[in-house]
Amino acid sequence: MKDFSIPLSKKNKHSWQGAVAFVVVAAALAGAIYTFFYLRYDPTLTNMGGRLQGMSMEHPLGTDHLGRDVLTRLFLGGQQTIGYSFLALLAALMIGVPFGLVSGYKRGWVDRMFMRIADGFLAFPDTIVAIVLSGLLGPGIGNLVLAIVMVKWVSYARLVRSSVLSESQKEYVLIARTNGLSSKKIMVKHLFPHIAGHVLVLASLDLGKIILLISSLSYIGLGAQPPTPEWGAMLNDSRPYFQSMPSLMIYPGLAIVIVVLLTNMMGDYLRDRFDVKKEVQS
Amino acid sequence: MILSVEQLTIITREKQLVKNVSLAIREGEWFALVGQSGSGKSVLSQAIGQMLAPNLKAEGKITFQKKDLLALSKKEMRTVRGGKIAYIFQDYQGSFTPFRTIGQHLDEYQKAHGVHSIKTRLAQTKEALDSVGLNESVADQYPFQLSGGQLQRVSIAMALLLSPDLLIADEITTALDSVSGHRILELLAKRQKETGCAILFITHDWRHVRRCADRIAVMKEGEMIESGGKHRILDHPQHHYTKQLIEAAPILGRGLPSGLQEAGNR
Question: What's the pLDDT score for residue A35?
Fold first, then answer.
């Protein structure tokens, strides 16, 4: 009996991708946190004398149309974009997961009511909700996050619900109930760990989408307002200077592309690790 | 009477799964409920512990130790379940949460029923595993590391942990091979003698019924068609269907067709 090994690690030829993605995302996060504590330049301080400069020792990535240091703004923008994306994701999880757990476990009329609510939210595309919310509450990144949470939590609720629906039919849940455990305990300790893997995969795949959404809505002016450094807003700012100084658009654009790509790689890696089909095959 | 079910009907929207079934179980007896698949045995047993799926509705009266179970609140029912009524199911693989050790299962169960001292819990866990012939090291193992027979032993240990008055065993040997099933049955009989709990034994296997049961009830398509003492049912079945069932069962060993001697020889 001693020789049973728990099949935790599965050899995967793409695992280096995941590892790389994790490292770079961690590095980006660390960079964003670092700039929070240490800033060489004020990201909003304008210096009209030194506007639209190229690369130099003082300004490694040059300055923008108001003479602000691009590298500083890029780091701070990352902090904004990634930070708010995580915030939105976390909030969506905090609402969606308990919602789905209760809905799937209780079933009956609770489920029907909860799911109709979710369907109601699902009826509106995220862009529309964001535009309506910023129209009602005024543009700003806080309202944007609210809009994203309102749209995104539904997919978690649905995912968790469907997993719980099938899991709660299994006998270990029945046994837990016959043993007199409370519903809360069964949901938190017996059901949630089962679905945590699926939720994690969906969340990591969603992170890229949310980053893109925040950036794109900031680009059209619904999210972060100037002078806040945010990648989408920075893209928008530098639009008029596209022909004279394309690098101003390239840096934030590249930053968005890389981060989204990496989060997707990370998501794929996690999906492979938690792949249900593979579990069955092995 | 420890449990009496009176005129119990279980319905879905479309049809009746159990129709006007009545039965009574005495203290410390082994009551076998026999019937083929889909005859409503399991649903009936789930109704006793109020474990029915939300789309099923039970009507009638279930009295357990002078309390009407169908009238109890959810909270009161939780203390009855596990404390007074315990269950063992057929699917030993699915009976345990895969990522929790056997020890954690037993521990959590005791905690839920107000055993607060960790020392007591550990001692009881060890004792329970011991009583079903398992080493205490099993407590640190995960369910998938154990064999089917071992898991079903753990199920018995868990079910009897808080010395319930009624144990509902739903086809517990069906998923096991016949040797393991036989051992589990003997273990259950032994533990019943030691603890004195009543057992509602649901099965479709006449060999088990012959061996252990005190009284037998036969169900068909949601109705109870015959019930009575073991000898009465096995040797003088009244109902046509019961006769068919008994004749259809494979006979092993020697003795009367009913297998009475076989049980005595043991």
Answer: 65
CA separation for the pair A216, A220 (Å, rounded): 7
What is the pTM assigned to this prediction? 0.75
Range of the domain at B170: 3-265
Peptide bond between residue B54 and the one before it cis (omega within 30 degrees of 0): no
Contact criterion met (CB < 8 Å) for B113 and A180: yes
Residue B78 contacts A where some CB pair is shorter than 8 Å: yes
Domain count, chain B: 1
Portion 149-178 of B in contact with A at CB < 8 A: 155, 158
Asked if B133 contacts B187 with a C-beta cutoff of 8 angstroms, the reply is yes
Percent of chain A with pLDDT over 90: 9
**pLDDT-wise least confident of A10-24, A142-156, A158-172, B25-39:** A10-24
Check CB contact under 8 Å for A1 and B145: yes
CB contact, 8 Å: B57 with chain A? no
Confidence of residue A14 (pLDDT cuts 50, 70, 90): low
Which of A106, A179, A194 is the closest to B109 by Cβ?
A: A179
Which of B51, B54, B142 shows the shortest C-beta gap to A178?
B51
Judge contact between B82 and B113, C-beta under 8 A.
yes
Q: How confident is the model over B163-175, as a mean pLDDT? A: 86
* Structural contact between residues A194 and A163, judged by C-beta atoms closer than 8 angstroms: yes
Q: Provide mean pLDDT across the span B111-119.
A: 85
Q: To the nearest whole angstrom, how far is the Cα of A218 from the nearest Cα of chain B?
A: 43
Q: Starting at the edge strand that comes first in sequence, how are the strands of the sheet with B198-203 ordered?
A: B85-88, B166-170, B198-203, B30-34, B215-220, B223-229
Test B51 with A174 for CB contact under 8 angstroms: yes
CB-based contact, A49 to chain B, within 8 Å: no
Residue found under tokens 């079933």: A107
| SS3 (DSSP) at A268 | helix
Q: How many A-B residue pairs are in contact by the CB < 8 A criterion? A: 73
CATH of the domain at B30: 3.40.50.300
- Nearest-Cα distance to chain B for A192, in Å, is 11
**CA quadruple A230, A231, A235, A238: dihedral positive or negative?**
positive
**Domains of chain A by start residue, with CATH:** 65-276 (1.10.3720.10)
